[in-house]
Amino acid sequence: MGGGIAQVAAVAGHPVTVYDAVKGAAERAVAAIGDRVAQLVAKGRLDCDPAGLRLSVATELGELAPARCVIEAVAEDLAVKQGLFADLEKVVTPDCVLATNTSIDAVLTQAGGFRMGPFALMDLVGQDVNEAVTRSVWTAFGYDPRFAPSLLQRALVEAGWLGRKSGRGWYRYGDDAPPPAPDAAPSRPQARRWRGHRARRLATAHPAQPLAGGDPHGRRARQNGPATQWRAAGPL
Question: Which of 53, 61, 62 lies closest to 32, judged by CA?
């Protein structure tokens, strides 16, 4: 996913610096991007010079200091994302935009114009089906930990919370349940709750919200200035 984001930005003409905590991963990503773009050009699907892409590799986080926008693409783990943004804010300038690649339903439907987000889609497909496909992909990538299946989704499957077909998944379903309606813009009292890194709301507090892993507010990790101004935080 991170490589795809870097490719889109580079093809658009932006200078892109790729960083990965796994040694050698950033170099492999840059090489793969060059190969993919060259193939697309050869097929006539792109009109650009692969050799002219302004792609570079950062060997440490501090090299991202000049960046005007940083997009994270780390694991779907809130603590990992929060730690990364805390480290980034020590490095980048105050006007640098920190963006997330996290999968927040509210963002995709309200900002991206999609009919449903990934959590609602998993409920539609079935948590058991989606988890099995994820495991197949993980196996195909040689059990790379970056593609490891979600333990939270495994817990849903084991609990029988398979989504729409069982009446409960990330969301609740049924005649007495309100339709799923994640909110991408928390009110001021709600926003204050996240200052202490309280990353998840209890599912019982608002059953129409996604359960633990699908919380749409917990990823708003950055606060800027005396007024509460939240920015979407995201993957490198």
Answer: 53
Res. 67: pLDDT tops 60? yes
- Widest pairwise Cα distance in the chain: 58
Fold of 114-213: N-(1-d-carboxylethyl)-l-norvaline Dehydrogenase; domain 2 (1.10.1040)
Residue 23: both structure tokens together? 């040694």
Average pLDDT over residues 199-227: 36
In SS3 terms, 176-196 reads as: CCCCCCCCCCCCHHHHHCCCC
Tens digits of residue pLDDT in 156-192: 999 999 999 999 999 988 877 776 665 544 444 433 3
Question: Is the pTM value of this prediction over 0.85?
Answer: no
Per-domain residue ranges for the chain? 114-213
Look-up: residue for tokens 């932006």? 14
* Placement of tokens 């439907």 in the chain: 109
pLDDT score recorded for residue 76: 74
Nearest partner of 200 among 190, 184, 211, judged by Cα: 211
